[in-house]
């Protein structure tokens, strides 16, 4: 055989034009960098932009001249964009992109902080970081609930309802019993209750998973709202005064500069949330449970031929998702606020966005949630320094980012292959 | 089955081979009868029972999770874990196991490769390793070579021999004669759900082919000799990819003339589907041209192709041919709903649709309770008649019928065949694609045999069916006689070694 | 279209076979919903079966206990009402306390529960359909005829926008797309309608027309985005419509406080009021809120029914929805159809939005001006079995629940949220006919086709 180099079935050449995704992203980043260097640079003032390492204006700070900072960081974004445009190795794509985006954001901040009214030209980093994590917290729990559910092939649009039910039952039973732990348990069960309905209707009765998710959200809003008005409003003392978890300061970690005071001096739900990200990530990719979960979400028939009980895995995961989201709901009512009607207010859907933006991956979801939390926190901060940027546009950011992601502009987003498809044994 | 035996199940598409094996693997439950293992009856409730009984199966459509690594796929369902209830996967052990098995049977696979990045041949190897790590004694291979290149096929045969040497029994389901002769110890031929004979590999190709296609059940179609006219459809140098971006039609030339039926025979998956879809504008043409009476139609939308006078009976009526929820009447106008008299501007004309439906139902003998009944409630034959009625009720220049009688009762088959011949007789160019050789022989005036995206030969309808069968297996007539005596595995051999003795083989080598 | 019995409606549900029957069935439900507290009326509806064979009554009973659409809808209502009653009881400490001694004096528990529940549901009925006291008052001359019609007026007022959003969701559903974005489309619709309503100085009549069309245009734009993303990039419309809902909401909250939009006399988030020349006229005098929106809603229902069943476009849309592969093979452009579907869905939802600010519900933009009409529209569409006339009736039922819920809240102190619960429950039960069947031990008959939903992943 002399011509053995010629394969029998020719594989179609991968049509790779010049405009790869990496280059398109690079071009966009380059544009953003130019915008930052020119526009933000021009709008920034000569004031020092101070990034204090504390809760307020006091203490040590990173300082930079507003104009110089805006231009400098803009140039960093330009450089990163140019690097991508020129072409970088694949594994460098994300780091370079990250550098570019951070440069863009910093340029923006230099402009905003320097242009703030006199006396307010500072950004308290501890405050910002803490706020970011606190605002991201329900998103983290919600997105993890989404990961658990969707990795096993059940679409979870009911995150909002699970969070809400968790918050409500945590508040109600925490108040009645006077115990945070009873409240926490009740919250987990509350979330699991919505999950149970989702599981039964989606798996047993084959109702479209998106439909049932949407309806369950409305049901949760209705039931909690109804009981809130009937019980909690009439007797808040008895029904809506749940005890709160006291602050837990973590030794050693609390002393890390900036991060210590920002993260490790209080909210135990934050610890739980971060721990859960780790546990679920390891569980999903390193354990038997995770392997089976993913197989059921990707190719249930193959799993079935190997003796994996598809439906049982799905039931279990959906219920677990409810527990996680329920605890997420409790992070409101057993740590921060008393229950109010519809208090989740769409966070469940941002969590869904974080799940998608994080590509159905626990760590990705965490990063997405933090990004969305930061946007949220930034909106609050900019409002406080009477910025010219309307907070509503920052609030839109998570949603717009998700639309771009699913449209394939930011990267390939692929759901588990069997996500949303009921499994009917042949 | 004996231990250490390779038993080939030979039969045409749809003969019932795969169903039988799925029952053996516990995926389907038998309606009656029983399975004996070592003389004892075996009840299989599910695949795990089959695995437990030492039966493994490599499905025609691989049961692999595409985003998993090889090791993960092999572990799944039989995970080695450590760390107590946490159940951490013991990847090292899994990897070792994979390496062990693959070395023992000479099946090289990289345990850390991701399935979707692997070529099909390797994926299949993973399937085999998966079964072997589960300590099976009997391995069922369902059409394993259908998706393989000749080289891969050759490698598979080698693997099978080494498995046999290790004392494993193998059931090898196929419809390719050459492979069977090359490897099987015993051959059972199945046709229409029944065993029609057993043979030893020494039986000649011709005998086997005769057993397989069965000369007794020939369907006869009454027709007069064709009077071919001008070329209507001309395909030149056509190149088309399938859904996986793999070349399916590879530089194909074809001409269909007015007033003739060109039958396209071939084992399924040799590019027939993609060829038709490309002609119909449903699949992008990567190279080459398609012309309809001189007009280039490649690049046209499907609607435009249909409007130009092409009738199309798609091969899978429930997916592409009919909207099951729609009524018979609506399905009868599915591609002409917006043309007078059925549609005027934006408005639909229900009365015209109903009147026309009544006529068509009468004319094409569609058995339905009413024209308003959802088409999904009709029998397969009557559903097919609805499609045929729809396509034949407008003036055509070209009719393309793919698997026109698949899953259709005998009465309807005859009716549909006579309609196709009638269409030919009024001067339409007809192209019939079928994996039923009987059908092609019965209908066609010329038979083009398709093999790996090309026409391997064009023969008359009086050609012995054995010869056509060999063509379908990729062996052109002249070469076939030379080779019927040598035991070389057919598919692989066609490209290996022997000098190309005719156009068909030559094509293959270049491919 | 009601004058001829649509022979090839092409409806996915075999039963009821025509829109007219579906309408009839759903109407039965509306009437019965309010009577269900006293479950003594298996009122004999006209038999929907066309060929009366053995005995009509017999057939009816058979049919009733067969799990058909009508029965499932009815029983879903009953179930929802029962669950609602349970919620009322467990959330009333006074009533609940009587259960602590239920073994010794069960009558207390039963009586107090009955009083609570029956009063609440009676108020629901009086607030939405007919109030006997107002009728008596009219006979006595103590109040005007308008008081008698007030409940109906309220029901129709609430129903009108829901018809539009319900049609929006239903239309998309028939085309195989799940439009969760009716809320966002209605939001952009309400913005455009309001802007046209107070920014454009136009003569009466024309002004109203322009404002209504502006609302439709706004919705169309917001529907076009997920439509084109679906058609061109394959982006899942469920995700995109959810996200666009929030984008629209934030845009609205931003817009309201801008100069030229915000009411110059107010500091809170409210816009200038729509000119009277752009407001939908009231139908029954100024004291009753019912306005021309409900007429537009009926017109829209007719138009959508025509579009779906009598137009080539509707044919394409239904074909794409039922089997996109076959549609493509038959030469229908699936991508073009997807875009058109979402644009039409957007137009309908946008019209629903216009209703919220051009009608009597509100006359200026506030952050909550759209209420929940988009999400309720999903429920309405599902309850209406994604058929136009079914949607109209489902919207009337939901409108009645809203209107009655208001009275229930003010007279019985039962939170309006109960209405949300009832609505969600009804649809949950309807979506799982097998469950309803199991609960009531229905004869296992032809239930397979009752599934309302399409299975879709991301």
Derived structural class of chain C: mainly alpha
Number of helices of chain B: 20
Largest sheet of chain C: none
Evaluate the radius of gyration of chain B.
25 Å
Annotation, overall tally of beta strands of chain B = 22
What would CATH call the architecture of the domain at 6-213 in chain B? Answer: 3-Layer(aba) Sandwich
GO cellular component, one term (chain A): plasma membrane
Subcellular location (chain A): Cell membrane
Organism (chain A): Micromonospora arborensis
Transmembrane segments (chain A): 25-44, 64-85, 92-116, 128-147, 154-174, 180-203, 210-228, 268-285, 318-337, 349-372, 393-413
How would you briefly describe this protein structure?
Chain A: GO terms for molecular function: transmembrane transporter activity. Chain A: Pfam families: BPD_transp_2. Chain A is mainly α and 426 residues long.
Helix and strand arrangement:
The complex is a heterotrimer of chains A (426), B (511) and C (458).
Chain A (H helix, E strand, L loop, with lengths): L20 H23 L4 E5 L8 E5 H21 L6 H22 L7 E3 H27 L7 H19 L2 H25 L4 H24 L3 H4 L8 E2 L9 H5 L1 E2 L1 H19 L1 H11 L1 H6 L4 H24 L13 H11 L4 H23 L6 H16 L20
Parallel strand pairs in A: 1-3
Antiparallel strand pairs in A: 1-2, 4-5
Chain B lengths: L5 E5 L6 H8 L10 E3 L2 E3 L4 H6 L2 E4 L11 H6 L5 E2 L5 E2 L1 H14 L15 H14 L4 E5 L7 H16 L3 E6 L2 H7 L2 E6 L2 E6 L5 H9 L17 E11 L5 E11 L3 E5 L6 H8 L7 E6 L2 E2 L5 H6 L2 E4 L3 H5 L6 H5 L10 E2 L2 E2 L1 H14 L16 H13 L5 E5 L7 H16 L3 E5 L3 H7 L2 E6 L2 E6 L5 H8 L4 H7 L6 H6 L7 H8 L1
Parallel strand pairs in B: 1-8, 1-9, 4-7, 7-8, 13-20, 13-21, 16-19, 19-20
Antiparallel strand pairs in B: 2-3, 5-6, 9-10, 11-12, 11-14, 14-15, 17-18, 21-22
Helix pairs in contact in B: 4-5, 8-17, 14-15
Chain C lengths: L18 H17 L20 H10 L3 H22 L2 H6 L7 H23 L3 H9 L4 H30 L7 H18 L6 H28 L3 H20 L36 H18 L1 H11 L1 H6 L4 H25 L14 H11 L4 H25 L4 H15 L1 H8 L18
